[in-house]
Design goal:
By secondary structure, this protein is an alpha/beta fold. Helix content is 31%, strand content 20%. It has a four-stranded mixed β-sheet. Strands 6-5-9-11 form a four-stranded parallel β-sheet. The chain binds zinc ion (ZN).
Length: 260
Amino acid sequence: MSEPKIPFLDAIRRGDLRTAMSIVSCLGIEDATPDLVESVFSACQAGWRHPDCEMADHEVKHPDIAHVVLRSGLHSGAYYNCPMVLRNAALCMFMAKAIVHEMQASGINPCDFQWVAGSATSAIGLSFAVATLLGKNWHPLQKDPSDPKGKTQLWQKCAIPSGEVVLNVEELTTTCGTPEAVQAAIRQANPAVEFFGYTPVLIYRPADLAAPNRAGDSIILPVLKIDVPNYERDNCPYCEAGSEAITDPKKDWAKLIGAA
Ligand SMILES: [Zn+2]
């Protein structure tokens, strides 16, 4: 795919964030295409792929280049650092527009749900931005402080009226564990709640490429779907070839993308 010639991408690459954000704020939902989302991640240096990540034969020809351990524990040759993009409020709103663009392209009627929610803490801002664009109710989830792994979500201090429908929006999922945790938390606090039949996700990188795109009762609706194989540690061709496994890619990001 050739890079689109978009002025705000050039401004991002130059580090001229003020210009980039003033341009991106003017873009509409119709502009927020998956190709442009991919280009924003590229311009922000927030998407990384090992040169062998799409190998069909699982042969690693570049063992000198490290690979990553995903939050799910799976080993992989691709990583998308969503917080690097979403921490900029204008780009977060642009990504929300990309999600609404995808929903419109799929024929989803926003009148069919009343609430939008996303996981704490990674999808808090993104879900709020989607709720803002669609004029919906929104309430933040929280991480359960008693869960040392930080995976359990809590919904507190807000009752959803019986029969109202929640749209769950997420930034990235591999195993669908996050949307399932979100939906479990909301359902525990609101037993009569219903969930919309689709869960929009900015980046979906399925653990099993052949598995159905489902989170609980919802179908995953990705803006970008990353079809890159992931591996259990004991079955990882990168480890077997001697490639270093980076266990905290966000912390070692500069090293991973070759900037360190
Ligand atoms: Zn490995």
